[in-house]
């Protein structure tokens, strides 16, 4: 395997440093094949994906494979260093401004370089996200290649459709890939105040399985038979701030309508301020908190998928 790490400069920053990106190219020893791109930390407060790419790069060191891996472990270095979702330079969400613009805000300029040097150069993309610093999440998007999404081994696959309840956005890495006609999957895995090691291990296993799916490894694709495809997700937010005490079942488990997801308790008076109930009649847990976290009114507390009309 041949390996090349390069630094792509973007701009001279006001503090004298050079803003830029580190890109890794790993060339397999089995000859020609697709170029698989893997990126993380488009949102700087989602470091789990960075860990996944680090361990993945170590895992493929001695494996013969076809084609090339192009890794962008930290897509938004300033946000990553600050552990913030948005780019600290301009307070912009990098994953809403693709393909970016040379003369735009710093995030636009960053997006333009990510597009030119990375997104527009790969034959398939895995974009790693997580539940940020407090919530923990576990699902994969089903966008333009069902087999690719299935190969990430997530139990829950979310087929986002414009106009449906849940999340469809423009200006993302995924919309760029879809415009390019290249297969893409967005993986939402890990995060929160919990040991990330199990999520990192699953992320590495997912990336190896994606390589099998793309015929980069001479191994059969692993499949799991309990995958469900859902097409709507309810985001359930608290209306009060305080400690969130969770009573919801683990991620990937079903939950009935009206069931208690959690309670908001005042750290000041100790009184129970709110009981948060599941609003999805036939639900499945997608995002939750694994520790007693402090939340503001309106924060991400829970995501519950709608199993009504789901397909296997
Ligand atoms: Zn994200």
Can you lay out the helices and strands and say which pair or pack?
Elements: E1 2-12, E2 18-27, E3 35-40, H1 48-59, E4 68-72, H2 77-82, H3 106-117, E5 124-129, E6 135-141, H4 146-150, E7 156-158, H5 173-180, E8 184-190, H6 197-213, E9 228-230, E10 233-236, E11 242-246, E12 254-256, E13 260-265, E14 272-277, E15 282-289, E16 293-295, E17 302-306
Parallel strand pairs: 3-4, 3-5, 5-8, 6-7, 7-9
Antiparallel strand pairs: 1-2, 2-4, 6-8, 6-15, 10-17, 11-13, 11-16, 12-15, 13-14, 15-17
Helix pairs in contact: 1-6
Number of strands: 17
Q: Give the name of the CATH superfamily of the largest domain.
A: Zn peptidases
Radius of gyration (CA) equals 20 Å
- CATH architecture descriptor name of the largest domain: 3-Layer(aba) Sandwich
- Straight-line N-to-C gap: 38 Å
Please report the number of helical segments: 6
Which outline best applies?
globular
Task: Tell me the fraction of residues in β-strands, as a range.
Answer: 25-35%
How many separate domains?
2
Query: Which structural class matches the secondary elements?
Result: alpha/beta
Low-confidence residue ranges: none
What's the CATH class of the largest domain, please?
Alpha Beta
State the major sheet.
13 strands, mixed
CATH topology of the largest domain: Aminopeptidase
Description:
The chain has 312 residues and is an alpha/beta fold. It folds into 2 domains: 2-228, Zn peptidases (Aminopeptidase), CATH 3.40.630; 233-306, RNA polymerase II/Efflux pump adaptor protein, barrel-sandwich hybrid domain (OB fold (Dihydrolipoamide Acetyltransferase, E2P)). It is 19% helix and 31% strand. It contains 6 helices and 17 strands. Strands 1, 2, 3, 4, 5, 6, 7, 8, 9, 10, 12, 15 and 17 form a 13-stranded mixed sheet that branches. A hairpin with a 5-residue loop joins strand 1 (2-12) and strand 2. Zinc ion binds next to loops.
